[in-house]
Structures are given as C-alpha cells and as structure tokens.
Amino acid sequence: MSRSRDRILKNLEDVYRDAFDRAKESGDRVRMLDLDAAFQREQLMLEVLLDIRDALAGSDSVTRGTLEKLQALRTLTTRRG
After folding, report:
1. 35 and 20 in contact (C-beta within 8 Å)?
2. Which sequence spans correspond to the domains of the chain?
3. What are the backbone dihedrals phi and psi of residue 59, each rounded to the nearest 5 degrees, phi first?
4. Does the model's pTM come out above 0.70?
C-alpha cells in the first residue's frame, strides 16, 4: 500500500520546518537560506519521483504491461515546458 502524495510531501515539509525553526531560533541565517533552497530542491525531486510512481502504477486497477508502463514513463520524461 503506497502512501499518499500529500502525506509524503507533508512529511518532507515537517522535517525541513523543524530544522528551519531550529536555525531561526539560533539566528543562523545562512543555515536558514540553505535549508530553504534544499527544501525546494528536494520537493521538486520528490514530486518527479511521485509522478513516475503514479505513471507506472496507472490509474486503473488492471495491471498494465511493461511496454505500456515504459511508454508512460517516456511520455512523462519528454514533457518539457
């Protein structure tokens, strides 16, 4: 059973929020900036991984073939703005 996207992203935010608050309490501005940048980077990477997970899992309960999963992954990775 997979954890939901919202739960995973909330856990990531909680971890960074705790570290950010500790840095803020100690007045470590450099650490705060580093944590902010790291959180944004980690959030983006995690969202990409969750998109891949969702693409491979499919939206229906019927198991898709390997070729369909690979095509979904290829489509996902070739989408560029």
Report:
1. yes
2. 5-78
3. -95, -10
4. no
The length of the chain in residues reads 81
- CB contact at 8 A, 57 and 2: yes
Residue type, 29: R
**Spatial separation of the C-alpha atoms in residues 24 and 10, rounded to whole Å:** 20
Structure tokens at 80: 């560029």
Tokens of 71: 């095509």
* Tokens (6 digits) for 21: 């608050």
Per the CB < 8 A criterion, the answer to whether 15 and 60 are in contact is no
pLDDT, tens digit, for every residue of 7-66? Answer: 999 999 999 999 999 999 999 999 999 999 999 999 999 999 998 888 877 655 455 677
Alpha-carbon gap, residue 50 to 63, rounded angstroms: 18
